[in-house]
Amino acid sequence: MSDHPPTLPDVRMNLIRPKAPATSRVVSNELCMNGKSASFVKHLVLDVSGTPLAGNFRAGQSFGVIAPGTDERGRPHKVRLYSVACPSWGEDGDGNLVSTTPKRLIDEYQPQRPADDPSDHRLFLGVCSNYLCDIGEGDEVLVTGPNGKRFLLPEDIEAHNYLFIATGTGIAPFRGMLMELFEGAGGPTGARAVLVMGTPYTTDLLYEDLFQRLHREHANFDYLTAISRESERLYVGALIEREIDSLGHLLQDPRTLVYICGLEGMQFGIFQALARHGLADGYVTLHEDLAAKPPDDWRFGDMKRRIKPTARCMLEVY
Ligand code: FAD
Ligand code: NAP
Predict the structure, then answer these.
(1) Range 126-138 average pLDDT
(2) Could you say which of 115, 158, 187, 198 is the most buried, measured as most Cβ atoms within 10 Å of its Cβ?
(3) Going by CA atoms, what residue is nearest to atom 53 of ligand 1?
(4) Summary mean pLDDT of the chain
């Protein structure tokens, strides 16, 4: 298959360093789940006008946030990264309002190191995510960045088709990218785009109204959801296999780009699904050990260092 790798745009990075963060201001901070959910995810809009971030971020990049206060050692909190959730022209069209999608990290304490007490089950609250979900209009937020130079739409968006695959807040960059593809000043793209989104419950789907509307308005955009804890346990990889008749055509097209964002483990189920249908070529390079085995015999541990994404597969997982 002749390959069409993307040309990525040059982007600005690290214009604001953690040692000298810039001050932004909250414009709005609203829940963005699909109804009443057990989790809390916000669509947070920050005014970055007058800072080096203004006009200098792109959908797919992230920016840093420094929560106020100090950590348990008395040092200022470290920077946490948050994905840009808006198009490159911002929420306002001028690049002065950047948005992101913070999710409260709320859990029971779980041991992280061998020395940790396994019987400690007190409430664990992530520092920066809860700070970002607590703040309101007018509050000041210290920001850094932008960060990232590979998880980007190509320079010529009409030269490619797109399969976007997200789990949870991994949807953030795809909100911005899809708005860029379908709601830009030049009119909607003629490229084909499919978004596959995985969440535990239907109520955890994020920005549902936007994606449903884009699907209704554009015959070249499909939106598929993999819900893991309702009537069946469906993950994004299994959903792609279920829809392989239609997605197969998209994936066989050498112009198609695959973007994967979210939980660290998600890419393996996706790569395995593609390989089972002879569709992994062009998106990943397999180490010879793995290439010699049928995909059903691949083990999770084997995959980590033996599958490398190609230029047509963008990966942002952790
Ligand atoms: P922290 O206070 O930093 O706590 C998290 C740490 O505590 C973990 O690293 C882990 O070591 C430990 N921990 C976790 N759970 C437990 C537990 N139950 N018990 C004990 N210890 C535990 N997040 C978003 O919500 N939205 C985004 O758009 C987003 N984009 C990102 C983009 C990039 C490129 C990256 C790298 C990360 C992104 N993140 C995003 C994640 C974000 O950076 C933070 O990691 C996340 O918000 C948690 O930070 P926190 O300060 O709330 O948690
Ligand atoms: P969430 O709402 O809990 O949804 C995650 C979904 O993925 C659940 O349905 C989960 O199913 C499913 N899942 C679990 N393991 C999977 C696997 N191996 N393959 C496919 N699906 C799997 O998600 P969240 O709490 O928002 O977490 C999203 C993750 O993305 C976090 O780790 C976040 O830090 C990360 N993230 C990364 C970036 C980035 O790198 N740019 C940006 C934003 C977010 P079950 O739970 O039912 O098993």
Answers:
(1) 98
(2) 198
(3) 126
(4) 96
Q: pLDDT tens-digit profile of 286-318?
A: 999 898 999 999 988 888 889 999 999 999 997
Dihedral sign, CA of 268, 244, 220, 284?
Answer: positive
| Ligand 2 neighbours (beta carbon < 6 A) | 83, 103, 167-170, 172, 198-200, 204, 228-229, 235-237, 261-263, 265-266, 269, 316-318
Instruction: Looking at the CA of 226, name the nearest ligand.
Output: 2
Is any ligand 1 atom within 6 A of the Cβ of residue 82? yes
Decide the pairing of beta strands 221-227 and 193-199: parallel
For the CA of 176, the nearest ligand: 1
For residues 210 and 213, give the distance between their C-alpha atoms in angstroms, rounded to a whole number: 5
Residue among 134, 218, 224, 128 at smallest CA distance from 171: 224
Q: Structure tokens of 186?
A: 């030049």
> How long a stretch of residues is the chain?
318
40 contacts 31 by C-beta, under 8 angstroms: yes
**Closest CA to ligand 1's atom 1:** 126
Q: What is the pLDDT of residues 253-279, one digit of tens each?
A: 999 999 999 999 999 999 999 999 999
Q: What residue type is assigned to position 249 of the chain?
A: H
Ligand with the closest atom to the CA of 106: 1
Other residues' Cβ atoms within 10 Å of the Cβ of residue 23: 13
Regarding the beta carbon of 110 and ligand 1, being less than 6 Å apart is answered yes
Nearest Cα to Cα of residue 46 among 108, 107, 95:
95
